[in-house]
Amino acid sequence: MCGIAGIYSHQPVASELYESIVHLQHRGTDAAGIMTYDDRMHKHKGLGLARDVFTKDNISLLKGNIGISHNRYPTHGEFGHGEIQPVWTSVPYGISIAHNGQITNYDELVEEVTVKGQRYLNTTSDTEVLLHILAERLTTFQNPNTSKEFFDLLCDAVTTVFNKVKGAYSVTGIIIGKGLIAFRDPRGIRPLVKGERSNGNGGKDYIFASENTMFYSMGYKPKGNVLPGELIYIDNYGKKFSKRLVKKEFNPCIFEYVYFARPDAVLNDVGVYRSRLRMGQNLAEAWKKKYPDVVPDIVIPAPSTANTSALAFAHEIGVRYSEGLYKNPFVGRTFIMPGQKERKRSVKHKLVPQETEIRDKKVLIVDDSIVRGNTSREIVRMLRHFGAKEVYFVSACPPVTHPCYYGVDMPTKKELIASNVEENVIKDILGVDILLYQEIDDLVEAVTRKGDHHIDNPCMACLNGNYNGTE
Ligand code: SF4
Fold it and tell me: Which atom of ligand 1 is nearest to the CA of 189?
């Protein structure tokens, strides 16, 4: 999934880039990196959490007032030091980018970059290919004299990217001596928000990030989104240029609202917290319609992404909300762990049932989604072990039936429980008395109920198999 940020500031930017990726840590825990520039590039990156990769000393070496940062969650490419972003190339100018998403025509582009473009790829990362497509187009023009001329050149290069690169990509980038750039694929699948603050001198600082989760603490005011197909350029002197280069249907990822984004984020002008409350409300309405005579004793969220939906669900059906599963906050998110083995093992380590909330009770669990089914099955097994009388399981997300090719690790149909068996079989596999999934229309309603956004149709390819021809 990944988290990215890019900052133009009137002061050294490294510590704020670090703070940004700490606030985006939930989007990827494998690796972290920062790249800045003054008269040359400065980078530091490593495997693990941002707090483990960066120290006061290495941050102090990242000079400059312009830079980008990245949290890695691998969906394409091998897993090693070479794949850690930001990636960079020295020709032309010195360009570095951070990318969130996944490119679907990678093989075709590799051919173009290496055979036609005679460029060497140092990694198997799709981000490196994107970088070279961008760089190639910039190389074919002479160095312009003014920022406006350079922006025109950038528009040409990013339009080339939009025409050639399929899939999902939100990008922040730096170009030595030129400034900061941010752009988002024409369908706007992955999020990219923007913020501004006064620099106290009549000018402005700018931030672009996967989520606005760090804006408040860093003093930035949210200024909406980088639009799908839009390029924004902040030159070396803080002058801003922007243009929407391509206009297509706006299809942001609905799974950001279900699972990935932090609840305090506002993406595409929709508050994640509010959308999750509405998911809980809609699910409760469906429950009351389908099971009017079944009233659980207690509603427990599968912590912690489902907390908000569970709160609304419990309120709607008039049943006590309980934190009957304690989550150890020091164990990572199971879904973004790279291997199945790690995922399975961590469920037991991170969730501890509270017996007094469970024994002899009819327990209803609200989860954000059921992807592989392993976590859900393990939760049910623990509840039974701790004496639950009956176990009901509701999912705020409809059945996940198709892989994601846009940056979420749902690689094969074989791994997705709902793609292989019917709901009644899933109910038996999980070992629950009742299983209820959110309807697709109710999920869309929960995300788009508030009218002042520009979403045309959220991407739901993992739920309905509609990839708009770009898988
Ligand atoms: Fe998001 Fe699913 Fe679309 Fe992937 S396929 S971008 S997870 S909605």
Answer: 6
